[in-house]
# Entry
Amino acid sequence: MSEIKKIYSNYEPYSLSNGDEHLIFHESADMTRSYELLSGLKTAIKIPQEGRLIDIGCGNGSFLKAFGDAYPEWDLFGFEQSNLRAKGLPNVKEIYCGSMDTIEGTYDIVTMIHVLEHVFEPVSFLRGLHTLINPAGVLFIQTPFFKTNPFDLTIVDHCSHFQPDTMAYAVNAAGFSTTLQEDWIAKEIGIVAGEGGGNRAPAISAASTTSAEQSYLWLHKVAAHARELSGHGTFGIFGTAIAGTWLASMAMPQVSFFTDEDPHKQGKEHLGLPVFHPLSVPYKDAVVYLAFPAEISIAIYKRLSVSYPRIKFCLPPPFNAADACV
# Structure
């Protein structure tokens, strides 16, 4: 709790990119995660031209902005515990701050994007949302998925970790009816739910605990592997998000730089180290570690090794023995 308090005392979302959301890279076009989520939500439910939406844990208003751009006739609201504000956004009527008890009215859509993992008692918290949602309203929850992204286990202020079955359990136990489970963004899971679920929660698989243990052990393998490779050239890490940050802290002082394809981050410093575009890495003997889940890193490796052949990109170890042939 003392570490969490320290984090939020001077917290700035997406500080390396000046408050702009991380980009999700596609072959066709890159977009922020809020626009990616909204694109999926539009295909999952019928969103009318008018209504009321509140984003719980709205931060600096990234999702509110994306939604407002697409649905300018909606009245938008936000809630945030800290002193962050989504100021100056069109159609944002109110940003509630501090206690959930300050929120007034009911809403057609309630969103919680990367919020539930910060909650100590997720089922109790979800039960409290019933008073905010209209009878025909929708609850949309998005969280990290530690099985496809074990690096999520390294985040100190994430006190709940979900798999699809455990998230469905929490939502249904809180009295909501799950209408859709989605995987619109890699390494994340989400649920679209409505009122009327009762308390008939599905059973949780025993494999959930096993997955957590496997993910934890894999992180130790990754840290040891990176330290071993750091002696084979000027060592850098691809990516400046949670995974890259954690790995750098585990491999210091051997790490010399970061590289990132996001133009908002290039030319800056992260953890006191320079952030280069892959084409601008000045070291001829550069070894760059791909700090991504094992399966995702393979696809990234195939693309990067062709685009930037002068850099030696290194893959993390396989997640389990079945992947060892990759």
